């Protein structure tokens, strides 16, 4: 099995490098996905180096050593499984779940499921939350970059949320070509059916089909972070937002000066610390998980 580098360092399985305050331990199961998402390092046709997911390195470890390291730690608040859709991955992941179930630590799993039956299987194995990624919120771009139909995917999310209230999450990638309006509308739709939304910023990964696709601007990402926060906290509805002709957020109906720091923190499951998935050293972070240095960004014709 694999761990993110930061998780392995936090657990003492790697002895050098900075130690991050990893409340969540991130594991990775599977290699070379059967699907072929244009932006993913693990896609079927990706030429990215083995052991990469986004820009994070995932070194290999013996499962028994990982389980013992988690048992020794009193600071782990959540275990997260990242599942690559590949042969035999379910058996390996389920074995790990049975190995850590007695630790009474909440477990999340991010899995590409195609049916309710598949989702039920993960909950039966002790998963507390199931993450069913959406990634792309524009129907045509979803089909082009991810494959499949967005409407069917949303229908599955709704059915799972009805069966497992407050236990379904999804995440979306800002910067795939959608408008900000489309993103806000999707976040509102998910909130209305009880699905928690986590945000990523598109990260071009060498060896993927979209390796030359640009990153989103930090201004656009901040606006969508604020929209997600306001909707999740029931402080605003998509109807309260104003958009430009190209779908850019120009006003949220809320005083931006009153937006708390946590609006810019990593979003998703409780205690998600997911650092450096889409960050570059020395540059401003899209998502923060520790201290925040507030910077200005543009909403409409004014800086905030």
Structural notes for this entry:
The structure is a single chain. The protein is of the alpha/beta class and 304 residues long. The chain has one domain (2-303): Aldolase class I (TIM Barrel), CATH 3.20.20. The protein is 29% helix and 15% strand. It is built from 8 helices and 13 strands. It has helices at 5-10, 63-72, 89-100, 116-124, 139-146, 150-163, 180-192, 218-232; strands at residues 2-3, 24-29, 52-53, 56-57, 78-83, 107-110, 129-131, 168-174, 196-201, 242-243, 249-251, 298-299, 302-303. Strands 1-2-5-6-7-8-9 form a 7-stranded mixed beta sheet. Helix 3 (89-100) links the parallel strand 5 (78-83) and strand 6 (107-110). Helix 7 runs parallel beside helix 8. The longest helix is centred in the C-terminal third of the chain and has 15 residues, at 218-232. The radius of gyration is 19 Å and the shape is globular. 40% of the residues are buried. The mean pLDDT is 90.
């Amino acid at each position: 099995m694999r761990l993110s580098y930061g998780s392995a360092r936090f657990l003492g399985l790697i002895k050098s490098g900075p130690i991050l305050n990893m409340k969540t331990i991130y594991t990775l199961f599977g290699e070379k996905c059967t699907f072929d998402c244009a932006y993913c390092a693990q896609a079927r046709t990706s030429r990215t180096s083995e052991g990469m997911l986004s820009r994070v390195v995932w070194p290999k470890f013996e499962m028994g050593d990982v389980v013992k390291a988690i048992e020794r730690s009193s600071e782990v608040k959540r275990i997260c499984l990242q599942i690559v859709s590949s042969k035999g991955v379910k058996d390996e992941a389920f074995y790990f779940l049975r190995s850590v179930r007695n630790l009474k630590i909440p477990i999340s799993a991010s899995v590409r499921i195609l049916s309710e039956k598949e989702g039920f299987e993960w909950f039966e194995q002790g998963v507390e939350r199931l993450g069913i990624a959406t990634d792309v919120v524009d129907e045509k771009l979803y089909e082009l970059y991810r494959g499949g139909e967005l409407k069917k995917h949303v229908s599955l999310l709704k059915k799972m949320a009805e069966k497992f209230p407050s236990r379904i999450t999804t995440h979306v990638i800002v910067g795939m070509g959608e408008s900000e309006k489309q993103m806000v509308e999707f976040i509102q739709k998910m909130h209305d059916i009880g699905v928690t939304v986590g945000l990523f910023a598109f990260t071009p990964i060498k060896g993927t089909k979209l390796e030359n696709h640009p990153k989103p601007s930090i201004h656009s990402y901040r606006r969508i972070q604020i929209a997600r926060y306001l909707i999740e906290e029931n402080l605003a509805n998509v109807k309260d937002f104003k958009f430009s002709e190209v779908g850019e957020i120009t006003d949220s109906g809320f005083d931006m000066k009153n937006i708390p720091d946590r609006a810019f923190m990593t979003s998703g499951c409780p205690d998600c610390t997911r650092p450096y998935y889409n960050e570059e050293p020395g540059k401003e972070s899209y998502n923060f998980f520790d201290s925040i240095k507030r910077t200005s960004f543009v909403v409409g014709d004014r800086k905030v």
